[in-house]
Write a structure and sequence with these properties.
This protein has 506 residues and is mostly helical. It has 20 helices and 3 strands. Strand 2 and strand 3 form a beta hairpin. Bound molecules: cobalt (II) ion (CO).
């Protein structure tokens, strides 16, 4: 079986190489490509993507998987294989099934519908015109249900979709976690609402791009991002992209009148990059499917860990505030560290998910989860989405949504067919808090260390336990392995309660 396994790894690496070439084209498109190059670039991307797909569905791969005993029912294959080999086969079988079970005409129709859907969404958002977007949403919804039926006939469609992003999760498992999360977040929000508001106007001094860039560069170094294996550029929306095992890049954006936006985006994306760069399933499986993240939620846990748990924490700024103030001077001249920390942790319900604070963010996700699960199950009709959104925004966040631009038209996800993706964002926060509690058991003086500038202990802990395994474990297994218990929102709620009772004094 040795020979079969080696050949499989070889084929797997080849398809990853092609995918990374595509990622490089995509990175360039977002960061430096001249605008008029867009037409040929989309042809280049389409070509590379189809090459990557061809390489992903080579019949030889399927034959090798079978020879090694890997089937949909027994993805890990032959029992005599090593645990790491079985984990590899399990990961590859998942991706093989996903890539081969969809008929190509459905894939093409889906690509067309989501491309048109996203264009229609842009227009609808511009004109606050949900009605013009509704038929596109209906089309994408119909197709995604067909896809789910192909991937896993007989299984509820939303379960199939959730499993694509968070392997092992179901509507029921998410609903159980989210109903608890919802109740507790609403309670914390009520306590915060009873206290005086935080004035964060000190964050709105103008800071030019060069100074913000210097602060971002410095923060990447402070968090331990190896710049010989990555770099920072500017794009409209910050992102992280993997172009190779030693090439993981991030982007940020500079808003002159709100410099914290770039600081925290940079820390967020650095967290994603540290994860990708830390994946190390052994030389044998470098650059293979085993060297992929455990899930989108685990990925998001790493970005939020650095952005929020560390980056918005008091200990971090004990060490770093003075230098930040120098870098962005005169914006923070004369500002007290305590006031800076309070300001970057201001909590207030707001309309836009991507601008939400740590407390209200989860409620934005619960809202989307409840709506999309109803849409997929047919409990909610497309034409009723704006009304349902308004009712939930009132119920969860106490907000009166007066237009759909700040309501159901704000996110790109549904037009792109990304149903089942939203829960990952909130699960990421839950994982991050649970990992942090486990870390504190191993490193009881964590806060003191961070306050002294020792972020390396944090990174080392995460690398060994969370990053290195890649997709050796399913996310549910990983969290049990690392923390000793299954995912439990209590860790996140306790974290918020501790932190915000101090900040708001309740
Ligand atoms: Co992220």
């Amino acid at each position: 079986m040795r020979k079969e396994l080696e050949r499989l790894v070889e084929l797997d690496r080849e398809r990853k190489l092609v995918a990374h070439i595509g990622a490089l084209l995509g990175w360039d498109q977002e960061t430096g490509m001249p605008p008029k190059a867009v037409d040929e670039r989309s042809e280049q991307l389409a070509l590379v993507e189809s090459l990557a797909h061809e390489k992903s569905v080579r019949p030889e791969m399927g034959e090798l998987l079978e020879k090694l005993g890997s089937t949909t029912e027994n993805p890990g294959g032959d029992a005599s294989l090593l645990p790491v080999e079985r984990a590899y086969l399990r990961a590859l079988r998942r991706s093989w099934d996903r890539d081969t079970k969809l008929p190509s005409d459905l894939v093409a129709e889906f690509a067309r519908a989501t491309s048109l859907g996203q264009a229609a969404w842009v227009q609808a958002k511009k004109n606050d015109d949900f009605a013009s977007f509704a038929p596109h949403l209906q089309k994408v919804l119909d197709l995604i249900k067909r896809e789910a039926a192909c991937l896993s006939p007989g299984k509820p469609a939303y379960d199939v979709l959730l499993d694509l992003y968070e392997p092992g999760s179901t509507e029921l498992s998410i609903r159980t976690v989210f109903s608890r999360l919802r109740r507790d977040l609403v309670a914390i929000l009520a306590k915060i609402g009873s206290r005086p508001k935080i004035d964060d106007s000190i964050l709105r001094e103008t800071v030019g791009e060069a100074r913000q860039r210097a602060a971002s560069d410095w923060l990447m170094d402070v968090l331990g991002y190896d710049r010989l294996r990555g770099r920072l550029d500017v794009s409209a929306h910050p992102f992280t992209t993997t172009l190779g095992v030693d090439d993981v890049r991030i982007t940020t954006r500079y808003i002159p009148g709100f410099f914290p936006s770039s600081l925290f985006s940079t820390m967020h994306e650095t967290g994603h990059a540290l994860y990708e760069l830390g994946i190390a399933p052994g030389a044998e499986f470098r650059g293979t499917e085993l060297a992929e993240a455990a899930s989108m939620a685990v990925h998001e846990s790493q970005s939020r860990f650095w952005e929020n748990v560390i980056g918005r924490g008091e200990p971090f700024w004990k060490r770093n505030f003075t230098h930040l103030a120098e870098l962005v001077s005169p914006a923070l001249d004369g500002v007290r560290r305590e006031d800076f920390v309070r300001s970057i942790n201001k909590v207030e319900p707001s309309f836009i998910r991507t601008e939400a604070d740590e407390v209200t963010y989860g409620l934005h996700i619960v809202l989307r989860f409840e709506l999309e699960s109803d849409l997929i199950a047919g409990r909610l009709a497309v034409r009723d989405v704006p009304e349902a959104w308004r009712a939930k925004a009132k119920d969860l966040l106490g907000l009166d949504v007066r237009d759909d631009v700040r309501g159901c038209l704000q996110d790109v996800h549904w037009s792109a067919g990304l149903f089942g993706y939203f829960p990952s964002y909130a699960l990421g926060n839950l994982y991050a808090a649970q990992f942090a509690d486990a870390m504190r058991k191993d490193i009881p003086d964590l806060d003191e260390r961070v306050a002294m500038g020792d972020n390396a202990s944090v990174l080392e802990w995460l690398r060994e336990r969370v990053h290195a395994p890649g997709s050796f474990w399913l996310p549910g297994e990983l969290v049990e392995k690392v923390t000793g218990s299954p995912l439990d929102p209590a860790h996140f709620i306790d974290y918020l309660d501790r932190k915000y009772s101090q900040i708001y004094g309740f």
